[in-house]
């Protein structure tokens, strides 16, 4: 049973708020809440089925079974009472959700009482009225929906804890930004490090718990960016403090600050999605035309998939109306636009470029045959013609997708085989230490061209990404390289201006190491893209260096197995009580969001 959206029964009134939960459409964003509710759904279903079997069909049951049935209702009521008590405690500690939480707890308490009363219906009186199944079903649905609302409201508190941790990091960043002395910097940076550890734990647990593959991938890249740029922040800030007159050092450090704030904003978007409204400029002023949420960008593979889905609808309906014709033309035009990154690239071999253009021309030809106005042919002939044309066009699209895959992988292979990064960066460092300004500028220009080529390769990988995770990771790999390349050059210029500065040399080395990590990311993503294209499942990604492993701190609940309610046994019936006690435990975790402190290695 899917619990992505939990339907509700007659819930009565609901309290309003700035971001209230829709009682008719409760969407669950995390795996822990869904796994917590699965056994509850199972037990409620078992209870309803038993009541229907005994009270409606009058099947004979043992005296022991009857006693167990009578005890189930009181067990449910007691367990819900404890669960509600935890929810009300959370409401008392969080006034912003208090009205909604009290309302949900009240509904849960009423539902528990209703089930208890129904379970205590007389079963041994011959003329007792039979129980209407709809009454029990309505009470059960109300119980499930109210429990879900309580859990989602508690989850909102957990999200606010993460945002509060981000606010602390952002405040420390603003203090570091105006710091002008080493002593003060060391003190503030120590506080900043502790706040980053707390945020790493909280965001790591949330990343592991999110259901959306896209959001998990975005959290992963944002957390990795925070870790890498924290080291860059340390060295670039030290360089600026040592050389406050250097404009290059100032621009380099400010660029690192911008990247950290961008990562904070991305984490905020992921954790608040569907839970809380988030200010798009909470941590960063958006000046880029590209959306920060990279998951909504169109790629060549996405354009092929959209067009294929449209063709399938045409094949099923055997009709191409004016509206459908316009959408098909628009989808094909979008695909042609996406392939321009392949055909316009100076690094794409001529024969590959011609092959792509040939496939596009064949697609246009088949599309022309498909969307031409109806002639005088019979409906059967027209239907057969559409099906044949759709099949041919699908084959052309499949061939085009394979060709794009070949071109992208060849680009990656060539750029990684050349391995120009180490040579160029080593040359920049050597010239900078020697004070060779002309040499530094010459190698910087070569590195700039090489960096643009690397970004282009990332863009092609992004176009052929087949999964949400690859779509996000390849897109952010390109963005990271685009942001990191000019900062690396600024670090090189700073060292060239101060060739004897040990801090400036260390700063450039850290930037070069970070660039190498980005190249390694590109290599890894290329392998995963190739595996996905070949139908193989890529190996599970390893946790980033020193960031805490999501779900390894005792805070992420393991999915509990549904308990089979054997109504013939009193003790088995009371397992339902333990089950809802478990809900209370999970609710307490959501409400307080406690995590164990840990140190970054």
UniProtKB/TrEMBL annotation:
**Pfam families, alphabetically?**
Vinculin
A cellular component term, taken from the record's GO annotations? cell periphery
> Where does the UniProt annotation locate this protein?
Cytoplasm
Major subcellular site: cytoplasm
What Gene Ontology molecular-function terms does this entry list? actin filament binding; cadherin binding
User: Biological process (GO) annotations?
Assistant: cell adhesion; Rho protein signal transduction
Keywords, A to Z, come to: Cytoplasm
| Listed InterPro entries | Alpha-catenin/vinculin-like_sf, Alpha_catenin, CTNNAL1, Vinculin/catenin
Sequence similarity: Belongs to the vinculin/alpha-catenin family.
Q: What is this protein called?
A: Alpha-catulin
Q: Which organism is it from?
A: Ancylostoma ceylanicum
